[in-house]
Amino acid sequence: MMCRTVWRLSMVIVASTPALAHDHWISRENLSDPVTHSVCCGEGDCEDLGDQGIAVRERGATFVLGDSGEQIEKNRVLWRSPNGHWWRCGYDAREVDGSQHTVTRCLIGPPNPF
């Protein structure tokens, strides 16, 4: 009887593991880019950039990601970061030459300072 109970409990844990992978504040809030409408996804697709890694250009109209130089327009930024850090959600894209880089799906910033 005890073995059967342990086995059932194990199956419940294994079955719920994929759901846990997307149980993150970004997923729970169903965030998406306000312009492209791309869904941001969750922790596995997003990274906390801390409070650094973003440069402001054109008086706050454009944000430049420090690691890639990718430019994101202000109207695409979600001003909803609960920890006050910048978050970047993206996916890996492969170029024709075989090189790979991350394309930003969503940029989440601290509550709007502008």
Give me the secondary-structure topology.
Elements: H1 2-21, H2 25-28, E1 46-50, E2 54-57, E3 62-65, E4 71-73, E5 77-78, E6 86-94, E7 100-108
Parallel strand pairs: 5-7
Antiparallel strand pairs: 1-6, 2-3, 3-4, 6-7
Write structural notes for this entry:
The protein is of the alpha+beta class. It has one domain (25-108). 21% of the residues lie in helices and 32% in strands. The chain contains 2 helices and 7 strands; from the N terminus they run H-H-E-E-E-E-E-E-E. A hairpin with a 4-residue loop joins strand 2 (54-57) and strand 3. The longest helix has 20 residues, at 2-21.
Number of domains: 1
Q: Proportion of β residues?
A: 25-35%
User: Which parts are unreliable, with pLDDT below 50 for 5 consecutive residues or more?
Assistant: 2-21
Q: What topology, given as strand order, has the largest sheet?
A: 1-6-7-5
Helix content estimate = 10-25%
Task: Report the span from N to C terminus.
Answer: 62 Å
What is the C-alpha radius of gyration, as a whole number of Å?
Answer: 18 Å
Largest sheet: 4 strands, mixed
How do the SSEs run, as a string of H and E? Answer: HHEEEEEEE
Average pLDDT score:
77
Structural class: alpha+beta
Number of separate helices: 2
Total number of β-strand segments?
7
Shape: globular
Q: Can you tag this structure with a few keywords?
A:
2 helices; 21% helix; four-stranded mixed beta sheet; 7 strands; three-stranded antiparallel beta sheet; 114 residues; alpha+beta; disordered N terminus
